[in-house]
Specification:
Elements: H1 3-24, E1 36-37, H2 40-48, E2 53-55, H3 59-64, E3 71-72, E4 105-108, H4 116-126, E5 132-135, H5 138-144
Parallel strand pairs: 1-5, 2-3, 2-4, 4-5
Length: about 150
């Protein structure tokens, strides 16, 4: 094998690896059993009525820009981006959520391929929260509609 063939083989392997990583960045499921999906307009109404809206993105994203009035409770994920994820591999501080588990709350992140709010919703539900709202469209949907940010 000459040098040129070696380079071609290396580049082909690199492109194949990139294609696989893109294919593996799966979208979140469209729904989560026991959790209510909400859109930007409903999140705005909930927020205006005093319902906590939880930004599960990393602290730097929250600091850069978030939904006006949102609370930062980052979901630190190491588990697979899959509906059957193992929450024990992740970190999420449930103590930062409201003590009243029957009070409504909303989780969001960056939509689509961002699994943090999906996982936070699932973990909160499993921890006994009964009125979990998942804003799947997340910050991109919110800002795309020109709603207030901070």
């Amino acid at each position: 094998m000459n040098k040129r063939d070696c380079i071609k083989l290396t580049l082909s392997a690199a492109f194949a690896a990139m294609a696989m990583s893109v294919a593996m960045a799966a979208e979140t499921p469209a729904s989560l059993a026991g959790v209510k999906n909400v859109g930007a307009e409903e999140v705005k109404k909930l927020l205006d009525s005093g319902v906590p809206v939880i930004d599960t993105r990393v602290a730097a994203e929250y600091a850069e820009k978030t939904i006006k009035g949102a609370i930062s409770v980052p979901y630190k994920e190491k588990s697979a981006k899959d509906a059957g994820f193992d929450a024990s591999q992740d970190q999420f501080d449930l103590a930062k959520l409201p003590a009243n588990k029957s009070a409504p709350l909303v989780f969001f992140c960056n939509s689509g391929e961002c699994w943090k709010s999906y996982k936070a919703s699932a973990v909160a539900l499993k921890a006994g929260y009964t009125k979990v709202n998942w804003f799947r469209g997340g910050f991109p949907e919110w800002s795309g509609k020109g709603l207030p940010t901070q």
